[in-house]
Every structure is written in structure tokens, then in C-alpha cells.
Design brief:
There is one protein chain. By secondary structure, the chain is an alpha+beta fold. It has 5 domains: 2-42 and 264-438, Multidrug efflux transporter AcrB transmembrane domain (Multidrug efflux transporter AcrB transmembrane fold), CATH 1.20.1640.10; 91-249, no CATH class; 487-513 and 696-863, Multidrug efflux transporter AcrB transmembrane fold, CATH 1.20.1640; 547-665 and 675-687, no CATH class; 900-983 and 1044-1104 and 1111-1176, no CATH class. Helices cover 52% and strands 7% of the residues. The chain has 38 helices and 20 strands. The strands form 7 sheets. Strands 11, 12, 13, 14 and 15 form a 5-stranded antiparallel β-sheet that branches. A 4-stranded antiparallel β-sheet has the order 6-9-1-10. The protein has a 3-stranded antiparallel β-sheet with strand order 16-17-18.
């Protein structure tokens, strides 16, 4: 299929690359280092961007276009006509909120005196610019009267005692001083106000003081920036008896973003140390030759080199640097360590007897595809994030996607070269830590425990497959024998599904209460001075928070009563909204002008004007109405054309109420825009300077869903390239959706809003979640076991440990973010932790259960292969199944786990070789050295080149970890015919292998020295029982196996294959299910713990010699029958000597001691080998 072609093409390419790196490791270490150093110089072009308005607002937000329209029509000059309720840019300012310490009334004499003193101290603050001193009066923003913008609440200082004693009354929320014709808008200055039944102020809890600065020119902006810093320093050092103050300036958010960055630097060092300890620890083994502690250190270095090179390249390209980019090195540490674990695991599954280049080639052919999938999914996820309209998300995704790419490249090149170097160290059997020769553990049994623990490693060349030097990984055994067996139980499946349903219900509930938007305080550190300000502001000043500007951007005849009615209807509709206060707080020049015209006192001014005439209407407004003190504020609300004959735009101001949080801010903006859009014929627009941020609240949900959906579909497509199974594609998609629901729901319950920061993580989670799901599915369908339970065991055995290591390494990589006093980085930790937790549990718990239930996930390749076998191969019963299920007169029973019958594969050598070739490559076991003669074939060709599942990425069926079972291709026909067709003496007696009497027959050393199995044993462990049996064929098979290259005392344990052709037969006992057998490996009781891996021949190496299936099978059968006939004839000639050897052995055995047992056993095996030599001739 196309999918398999992609897999195999990449596999071959990576295999050649691994060979090349293994032969030339120095280039792949030095060149990447030089490239990283070159790119690191890009820091000289660093441009740090910390403007929160630019970073956290959408580039295409509606508010930015609306602000542009307001600036065009109602431009504000901070030095001439400043009005705080009509600003469109934040400018420069200082703001201080004063609250009482004991919740007293701020409108009391003692407290108000401290407030007045604070105001005087601020106004008297001096700065120096170009050797000139400036005070607030020199820098302030000025109104049309040419005076500084003032805090009107301080006008009541002379009468504060009367207000406190309730002799002087102030109406809330607005009060007009009839003596000076001045209006006071109290919600702008007083917070926590309590009124009486008449709306008169009784008390207040807080006072807001604001100081706006002139930023009209650049020099003014520079002086204002200096004044802001002096303002913060002054208030930080001031202490009062009755009041507590919170300060804030225009640059607070900007400086807080930079402070977030600085707070992360110390934690980076801690993270590196933690990752080094974890990586070095997980790369160590009790075998100090195979252990790779230094590679754990180099894996961290490789990841960080990739980050340095990628960041330098981005800086050279002129991409802005932002604070949240510093989360990328932490993420790359986790991702990089995951890739390193995969490569090291694949290296350990290769044949140690091969050359380093061959081993590295096999490692790359297996694992490089796996880390390629991981890197491709992560890279594409971040590339999709670049499409979002939020600059913070876009910049972070650019940096991180390039970092993922460079980390991948550096693991393939730099880390691969390091693996080659340490492969040569392992080849020389040097200690992995101190690089000195060490002794194999099997030869150090008489040494001390400390010596065995710290100074042993490698394999005994005399017995390379002994169980002491070839111990399996305990965690992998746990996943296969404990977790998998538990998940295969029906009751456990029910429990897992029930827990998943509870998880999903809670996640869906969390999704229904998700909060959107990035609150201002979350941009600051938890220990920042601004947090106190945000708390006071939210606590005391949320009743009337925002003054909203409404613009009619169209030329109209406002003298027309119909137009006046339409404008009034528009204002009434705004005021009827639940988020807007009544008309009492609305500023409308049209209402005020109409009211003025209707007053009797105004008749004397307008009696000569025809108000229904457009020109008279404009003349009366401009020349008469705007010259009263109370109406001066409307001068900037009406825009005339150049001739002053037309009103081309007008502005109104409405007041919002009771806006408590970001969700209400979002709902308010949507509701007000909906009203504005309903008057589209007048081109109505609304604006407030914070609407720039509120746009994020509106867009973040839709953009998140859109981006996540696109990423999920892309991830599923990538998975289909390597898992061509519709049902598995469904489960991958299901897992992605489930994990995303869980992350969104649980992060909401964990106090994380859906904002631009969490959006980054949700996009990133798509790439992380697909890894575990896709690889587990692939491992399951790629296994040829006939039962779902065995596939579950195989999948968890192959992937349980890598998933555990990958998730733990990623969490450790960002664990330091959990301790930073910053919402930005804490959000990274929470979301990545959730996706790693849910992704890992989906992979090792949920998916195995779901796959075993459906059990329809079969790859098309596997189905076509099985169909080919059934159509072209006659079913020949397995030789073992011809016998009764008894042994030496007693019935054979099985305890515990099922017996594994491995499966044979086609050996292409049969097609192009002769019988002499088979005989030449079959070598007897030498009784003295314990080693078989080496095959003339090269070490690379002697191993069937197959792909290991690794993380489930290979397109082929079997595991490279079964290299022990593929030493020789040619010994199959001879041994199989010997076992199948030689008669067995009737009087043969075989010792009982029951645990109760095992010590009676075998000395303690025989478990390591003699890998002889006299009956059936389980691959999954040593839990077996062989009862008394005398069946000749079973006994004959056991002795024949012990006499051949399969099992010999101290032998090199070259694996003997039982068949060169495929056949099916029921199991010897138990389930009766049919298996396609590849090979039968019989080992000693201790060696029974070794897993039997199933292999398939690599037919790609023999494409030039391939024949049609019919010709292939006919030739196999023809050659098999010929060899069978010749061996039968030779067997008949040697029968007396054959029987005599068995009779002599059985006669001497009861009288011999345990120490002489092995000697007699070797003599018997020698006779068998002599016999085998004759038969092979």
C-alpha cells in the first residue's frame, strides 16, 4: 500500500543514514556544534517586544478599526483638549487607589487629610530631563481651559467635616454644584459607596486619584516615562496611618511581562538539573557496559543546542522575542528526552555482536520514524498556530515550531553521533561511566556484591545468551504480565470504562463553564505591586466601570426632527441594555442642545434663529450653546466639514454598570455591538480603550475551536499514513477529542481561562495527544497474535515504558513552571501536565480496552499476507501436535500464562540456495568451547532485517528485539526433519521437570550452563509443570532439540528454526487456536523468562530473486520432500547406534552423581552432533 511504501522508504533511508553516522560520527558531532554557535550570534539582533496591547489583542480585531475611525474624527490633543472619558489611547498616566485600613469612611477628616497630603506629594514630585527640573504641572495633560486635569473629589476638602457630619450632602452618582455650574461624576473617584434612600452619599470605602501626562510630542513622552518611574518609587516608600495605597502606571503591564521573564531564569537552572538527574538515571542499567549515563546528559545538551540554533535563526530573521518564548526550552527538554529514550531503547534491541554502524542503522530504521512522527505532529501543530490572529500566539508558535525542527535535526545528527561514540565504547566492553574494561556479571558470581553492582557488564562471549547477562526490563515485564493481564479481565474493563465515563462527564461539565479572556491581573506576577491595584479596582470600582463612546459616522441633517428621533431611539436602545446605566449618566450633545432650546431662558439667545433650518441649527449650536461652562465638554463631540455647514460626525458617551469579570465584559461588548449594527444606516460605532483587549474574549473561543479542529484533522491524516486502518483512525480521533475535552474541562476547574495563553497549549496538546494514541493503535494492529488479549500484552510490552518515560520527561521538563509566580507560565504547566496525564492514561489504559473490545483493527497488509498464505500453502500439522498430550507416561499440564508458539517466516534463501548450502551453514555445537562455528554469512545478513515497533511506527510485523532467534537462516530444514521424522526409542525415560523434583535431576549450575528443556514451557515465565510422560515422539523431540544448535551446555545458543515453510496447527494443548508458526525456541527454565519475539524475513533484500507465489511454494515443497527422503534413509542406517546412545545414557543416569550428569549429557549431545554431521553429508 501507499502507507507501507512511505514507511518502508523512510525506514531504508534512515537505515542508510544510521550506517553513515556510525562510520563517521565525528562529523555529526562537530558540525552541529559549529552551526549552533553560528546561529547563536543572532542574539545581537534581538528585539524584545513587551507591549501587551500588541501581543494579546487580535491583529484583525474590530476595535482597532473602530479606534482608527475615532482618531480620524475625534483626535485628542493631550496639551489642549484632554478629556479622560473620551481618550482612545492609554497614553501616560499614574493612578493610585486609596483604601482605608479598617474599612472606615474615607469621607472623614483624618483620612481625607492624608489623601490631600498624598496628592500634594505627587504634584510636587520633581524629575530631571536634559538638566532641567520638571513637576507635574509642567508635564500634565491639559483641558481646553489650559489647566491640568484635576481630581475633582479633592474640591470637597474644605467641607469634608460637614460631609462627615451629614450637614453637606452629595448626590450619587452625579451631582451638580449650582454655585459654580460644575458637574461631578462620583463613580470616577469614589468606590464602595453606600447611599441612603434618597441617593445621598453616606460613606465611601476608597478614593481614586488619577494623573494624566502630556504625550503629544516625543520629548513629552520621554519625560512622562521618567515621571512614571519616580511616581512608583515615591508611593512605594510612603506609609500612612489610616490609609493603604495601590499604585499603577501605563507601563505596569509592560514591565510585568518583563518581570515574568526574569522570574523564570532561576527555575531554568533547576529544571536542567532535574532533567539531567532523570535522564542520566533512566539511561543507567545494572549492566555497566550497556548503560548509557553520559548519553542522558548529551540528550539534554542536544535539545538545548536545537533551541539555541532555532532562536538565533528566528532573531536573524527579525522575529520579535517575547517573554513566553522562554517556555520553549522547557518544552524542548521534555520532547528531546522523549526522542532520546526512543533511540536508546531501539539501540538496546539491536544485536550487540554486530558492528556499531550496523546497529545504528537498525536503530535508525526502527526509531527514527517514530521520532519523525512525533516531531512532524508537533511541528505541524505549532505551524497551524501561526495562523491565529494573536501576535503572542503567532510569535510563540514560530519560535517553538522552529525549535521542534532543530531539536529533531540535532537528535538525528548530534545525538546520533554521540550514540556512535558510546557504541564503540560498548563494543570494546568498557565501563560506561569511567571507560575501563569490566567483567561480565555471569563471570563475577564469586565477587562481592559491590563489585557485581558497580563493576560488571557486558556479555560472556562463551555464553552470550545466558539469562544473567540478558535480563529483561522490569517495567516492561510489569506492563506485559501485570497491567496487560489485568486489562484483559472483563471486570477490569468495566471499571476502566466506568472511570472513563466519569472523567468524560466531569470534562464536559468543565467545558460548559469555561471562562474566556485574559484578565489584566494575570499578566502580572503574583507578588507584583499591581496585583493590589487590580484587587482594589475590582473590589471598589466595578459598579460603573467604563465610559463608552458612541459615534454616528455619517453626514446628517440634525435639524430634521426625524433624524433627531432616530438618534434618540438609538440612545434609548443602548440605555435599555442590561449593561448600560440609564440616561442620567449619558452625555448627549443633542439632548442637551434640544433641552437648551426648549428653556425659556434660552429664548433670548435663539429667537432670531429658525431651529428647523440646518444652517441656523448649526449656528445656534456652535456660536451660542457651546459657550456655556456646563456645555464646554461637547465641543469635541461634533465634527463639522471644512466650511462649517455640515455635521459629518457626532459622538455620545454612555455609562456601563455592574461589569464584574471578563465574561461579562465579553457579553457587554457583543450586546452593544449588536445594537450599533442595528443602526447600520447611520454607521454607528462604539469604542473604549480596553475594547482592544476585549476583542480577544470574543474571538478566542471560535479561533481555538477552529485551530484545534484543523490540527486534529491534520494529525489524523498523518496517523493514517502509518496506521492504514479506519477503525484505528476512529480511535485516534476519539482519543484526540477526548483528551482535548478533558484538558479544556479540567483546566477550567483548575482556574485556567480560555485565552491566548491557554490556546497555545491546546494547540500544542493536539500534537502531544496523537503520539500516544496513534502508536498504541499501530502496535495493536501490527501484532499477529490471534487473540485480543495477546495483542494487548504485546502493545503494552512494546510501548508502556516509552509512554511512561515520555510523559514523565515532558512533565519534568516543565515542572519548574509550576513554581513561578506567573499565571502565564503556570498555565503552561497546568495544560501540559493535564495533556500528558490524560494522554498517557488513554494510551496505556483506555485504548487497549477499547481496541480489545472492537478487535477489528487489522492492517490491510496483514490481511493480504494471511490471505496469501492460506491460498498457497497446504496446512501441515505441527509435528508436536501429532503426539498425545503426555510425556514419559504422565500428562502434561500448564500453569499460569498461555504457551507461546512462535511463527515461522519464509526464508528467501530457500529459493536461491542448494541443499549443500544449508548443510554448510549448519554448524554443530562444540562440546568443549560451548560455541557453535560461525556462519560464513556476514553478521548483517545473518539477521533477518526487520522493523521493531519501537513506538509503533514501523510498517513491518515483528521486533528487532528477537535477534537472538535469528542467528542462522540455513539450519531450519535439517533440524525440523530430524525432529519430525526420526522414530523415538520406546524405552526412553526423561526426567520429571516438576518444581518439586527438579533439584533431583539437575544441579544448581545447570540453569545457567545448560539451556535444555525436556518439555513444554511457557514463554511468559517459569510457572509450569511437566508431569510424567513416556510418549516417544515428545521425548525424541526434547532430546533432538538438546542435541542441535538450539540448546547445548555452555553453547552460544544459536537459534534453530524448526521450519522453512509456513504451516498452521492447533496449539499442543489448551485453547486449540491456530497459529502461523515462525520458530520454536526451547530454553532452560531460567531462560523461560526471556520473551519470544516473532520475526518475518526481510524480503526486500531479495527482490531480484523473487518468484511468483505458486513457484515459490512448489519449490519449497519439492526441496523439503527431497531432504525428508534422504534424511529418512540415513536415519535408518544409523538407528542401532542412535538407540544404543539413549540406552547407555538411561542405564548410567541413576547411578551417577549430580556432578557427573552434565558430563554424560555433553557426551550424548556429542554423539548426536556426530550423527548430525553424518546425516548432513
Amino acid at each position: 500500500m501507499m502507507f507501507n511504501c512511505i514507511d518502508r522508504t523512510l525506514s531504508n533511508w534512515f537505515k542508510h543514514l544510521g550506517h553513515f553516522i556510525g562510520d563517521n560520527p565525528g562529523y555529526f558531532v562537530i558540525v552541529p556544534l559549529l552551526i549552533a554557535l553560528i546561529f547563536a550570534t543572532g542574539i545581537q539582533r534581538l528585539h524584545y517586544e513587551d507591549d501587551p496591547e500588541y501581543l494579546f489583542s487580535p491583529t484583525n480585531g474590530r476595535s482597532k478599526y473602530e479606534r482608527q475611525a475615532f482618531d480620524q474624527m475625534f483626535h485628542m490633543n493631550y496639551s489642549q483638549n484632554f478629556d479622560s472619558s473620551r481618550i482612545t489611547h492609554k497614553g501616560r498616566f499614574g493612578r493610585v487607589i486609596v483604601a482605608t485600613k479598617n474599612e472606615a469612611n474615607v469621607l472623614s477628616k483624618a483620612i481625607f487629610d492624608e489623601i490631600v497630603f498624598l496628592d500634594k506629594a505627587i504634584r510636587s514630585l520633581k524629575i530631571e530631563y536634559d538638566d532641567v527640573e520638571y513637576r507635574y504641572a509642567d508635564l500634565c495633560a491639559k483641558t481646553e481651559r489650559g489647566t491640568c486635569w484635576e481630581n475633582d473629589i479633592l474640591d470637597f476638602a474644605p467641607r469634608i467635616e460637614e460631609i462627615e457630619s451629614r450637614k453637606y450632602f452629595l448626590h450619587y452618582p452625579i451631582w451638580i454644584n449650582q454655585d459654580v455650574y460644575k458637574a461631578y461624576f462620583f463613580p470616577a473617584f469614589l468606590g464602595g459607596v453606600r447611599n441612603d434612600s434618597n441617593g445621598l452619599i453616606e460613606s465611601a470605602r476608597a478614593v481614586n486619584l488619577m494623573y494624566f501626562l502630556d504625550v503629544t510630542v516625543k520629548r513629552g513622552d520621554e519625560k512622562a516615562a521618567i515621571w512614571e518611574q519616580k511616581f512608583l518609587q515615591l508611593l512605594a516608600n510612603m506609609q500612612f496611618k489610616h490609609i493603604s495605597i495601590a499604585r499603577f502606571v501605563s507601563t505596569t503591564l509592560r514591565t510585568e511581562l518583563e518581570s515574568n521573564t526574569q522570574s523564570l531564569v532561576p527555575f531554568f537552572c533547576v529544571t536542567v538539573i532535574v532533567m539531567l538527574v532523570f535522564s542520566v538515571g533512566t539511561c543507567m542499567m545494572s549492566d555497566w557496559v550497556r548503560s548509557k549515563p553520559w548519553l542522558g546528559l548529551l540528550a539534554c545538551i542536544s535539545a538545548e543546542l536545537g533551541v539555541v540554533a532555532s532562536f538565533g535563526l528566528c532573531m536573524y530573521c527579525g522575529i520579535d522575542m517575547i517573554s513566553i518564548n522562554l517556555a520553549a526550552p522547557f518544552l524542548m527538554l521534555g520532547v528531546g528526552m522523549d526522542d532520546a529514550f526512543v533511540l536508546l531503547a531501539a539501540w538496546r534491541r539491536t544485536n550487540p555482536s554486530h558492528s556499531v554502524s550496523v546497529r545504528l542503522g537498525h536503530t535508525y530504521s526502527e526509531a527514527a520514524i517514530s521520532i519523525t512522527i512525533t516531531s512532524v505532529t508537533n511541528f505541524i501543530s505549532f505551524m497551524i498556530g501561526i495562523l491565529t490572529p494573536f501576535p503572542s500566539v503567532r510569535i510563540f508558535c514560530i519560535y517553538t515550531s522552529i525549535a521542534v525542527l532543530f531539536t529533531y535535526i540535532y537528535h538525528i545528527t548530534f545525538f546520533g553521533g554521540c550514540m556512535a561514540f558510546f557504541g564503540y565504547i560498548e563494543k570494546r566492553k568498557l565501563h560506561a561511566l569511567v571507560f575501563v574494561p569490566v567483567m561480565p556479571k555471569s563471570l563475577a558470581v564469586n565477587k562481592g556484591s559491590c563489585f557485581q553492582l558497580f563493576c560488571t557488564g557486558g556479555r560472556n562471549e562463551a555464553d552470550p545468551d545466558n539469562p544473567i547477562d540478558n535480563k529483561d526490563h522490569a517495567v516492561m515485564i510489569f506492563f506485559r504480565d501485570n497491567l496487560a493481564n489485568s486489562l484483559n479481565k472483563r471486570s477490569i474493563k468495566v471499571v476502566v470504562l466506568a472511570i472513563f465515563l466519569v472523567y468524560l462527564i466531569i470534562g464536559i461539565y468543565g467545558c460548559t463553564i469555561v471562562k474566556e479572556g485574559l484578565d489584566r491581573r494575570k499578566l502580572s506576577r503574583d507578588d507584583s505591586y499591581s496585583v493590589k491595584y487590580y484587587d482594589y479596582d475590582d473590589r471598589f470600582f466595578r459598579e460603573y466601570p467604563y465610559r463608552i463612546q458612541v459615534m454616528v459616522n455619517k453626514t446628517l441633517n440634525y435639524a430634521d426632527p426625524d433624524v433627531q428621533d432616530q438618534i434618540e431611539a438609538m440612545l434609548l436602545k443602548f440605555e435599555s441594555s442590561e449593561y448600560v446605566e440609564s440616561s442620567i449618566l449619558t452625555e448627549s450633545w443633542l439632548r442637551a442642545y434640544k433641552s437648551f432650546l426648549q428653556q425659556e431662558q434660552s429664548f433670548i439667545f435663539v429667537q432670531a434663529l429658525n431651529i428647523t433650518d440646518k444652517q441656523d441649527f448649526i449656528r445656534g449650536f456652535r456660536d451660542i450653546f457651546l459657550h456655556f461652562p456646563l456645555t464646554e465638554t461637547f465641543r469635541n463631540d461634533v465634527v463639522f466639514n471644512e466650511n462649517g455647514t455640515e455635521i459629518i460626525a457626532t459622538r455620545y458617551v454612555i455609562q456601563t454598570k455592574n461589569i464584574k469579570d471578563a465574561n461579562m465584559e465579553k457579553d457587554m461588548l457583543i450586546a452593544l455591538r449588536r445594537i450599533a449594527d442595528s443602526f447600520h444606516e447611520y454607521n454607528v460605532q462604539i469604542f473604549h480603550q480596553l475594547f482592544i483587549f476585549f476583542d480577544q474574549f470574543i474571538l478566542v473561543r471560535d479561533i481555538s475551536l477552529q485551530t484545534i479542529s484543523i490540527a486534529a484533522f491534520v494529525m489524523m491524516f498523518i496517523s493514517l499514513l502509518f496506521i492504514p486502518s479506519p477503525i484505528c483512525a476512529f480511535w485516534v480521533a476519539f482519543s484526540i477529542i477526548s483528551i482535548e475535552i478533558g484538558v479544556i474541562g479540567y483546566m477550567t476547574l483548575w482556574a485556567v481561562n480560555l485565552d491566548s495563553i491557554s490556546m497555545i497549549n491546546l494547540i500544542m496538546c493536539i500534537g502531544f495527544s496523537v503520539d500516544f494514541s496513534a502508536h498504541i493503535c499501530y502496535a495493536y494492529i501490527s501484532c499477529e497474535a490471534s487473540t485480543p488479549s495477546e495483542r494487548v500484552r504485546h502493545a503494552l510490552y512494546s510501548l508502556g515504558l516509552p509512554i511512561l518515560q515520555g510523559s514523565v520527561s515532558t512533565i519534568l521538563g516543565i515542572i519548574a513552571l509550576a513554581f513561578t509566580p506567573s499565571y502565564l507560565f503556570l498555565t503552561f504547566f497546568k495544560t501540559v501536565f493535564l495533556v500528558m496525564l490524560f494522554g498517557a492514561t488513554h494510551g496505556v489504559l483506555l485504548l487497549p480496552v477499547l481496541l480489545s473490545i472492537t478487535d477489528n483493527c487489522r492492517s490491510d497488509r496483514e490481511k493480504s499476507d494471511k490471505s496469501l498464505y492460506r491460498n498457497n500453502v497446504s496446512l501441515t500439522p505441527h509435528p508436536f501436535d501429532r503426539s498425545e498430550k503426555t510425556f514419559d507416561g504422565k500428562r502434561i499440564t500448564q500453569n499460569g500464562n498461555p504457551i507461546y508458539i512462535p511463527r515461522p517466516t519464509y526464508i528467501e534463501a530457500l529459493v536461491s540456495s542448494t541443499e549443500a548450502k544449508y548443510n554448510e551453514t549448519t554448524s554443530p555445537v562444540d562440546e568443549d568451547s560451548g560455541q557453535g562455528s560461525k556462519s560464513s554469512a556476514s553478521s548483517e545478513d545473518s539477521v533477518i532485517n526487520e522493523k521493531d515497533l519501537g513506538l509503533g511506527t514501523s510498517g513491518e510485523e515483528c521486533s528487532e528485539g528477537s535477534w537472538k532467534a535469528s542467528k542462522e537462516k540455513a539450519a531450519i530444514i535439517q533440524s525440523e526433519n530430524q525432529l519430525q521424522h526420526f522414530p523415538m526409542p520406546r524405552n526412553l525415560s526423561v526426567p520429571n521437570l516438576n518444581r518439586k523434583n527438579q533439584s533431583k535431576w539437575l544441579p544448581s549450575t545447570s540453569h545457567e550452563d545448560s539451556h535444555v528443556n525436556y518439555g513444554y514451557i511457557s514463554d511468559s515465565g517459569d510457572n509450569y509443570t511437566v508431569e510424567h510422560s513416556s510418549h516417544p515422539l515428545a521425548s525424541r523431540k526434547a532430546e533432538a532439540n538438546s542435541s542441535q544448535a538450539i540448546c547445548a551446555a555452555g553453547s552460544s545458543a544459536k537459534t534453530n528454526r524448526l521450519s522453512a515453510y509456513h504451516y498452521e496447527s492447533p496449539l499442543p494443548f489448551g485453547s486449540g487456536r491456530h497459529h502461523q508458526l515462525e520458530f520454536q525456541k526451547i530454553t532452560a527454565p531460567n531462560a523461560a523468562k526471556e520473551s519470544l519475539y516473532y520475526r518475518q524475513s526481510d524480503q526486500r533484500q531479495h527482490n531480484k530473486h523473487q518468484k511468483t507465489p505458486e513457484q515459490f511454494f512448489q519449490e519449497i515443497e519439492k526441496r523439503r520432500m527431497e531432504i525428508k527422503r534422504r534424511l529418512q534413509q540415513q536415519q535408518n542406517e544409523q538407528k542401532p547406534k542412535y538407540q544404543h546412545n539413549y540406552q547407555e545414557r538411561e542405564k548410567r543416569r541413576p547411578n551417577e552423581s549430580e556432578n557427573n550428569f552434565l558430563t554424560n549429557n555433553r557426551q550424548i549431545k556429542k554423539n548426536f552432533h556426530q550423527f548430525g554431521d553424518k546425516t548432513s553429508e
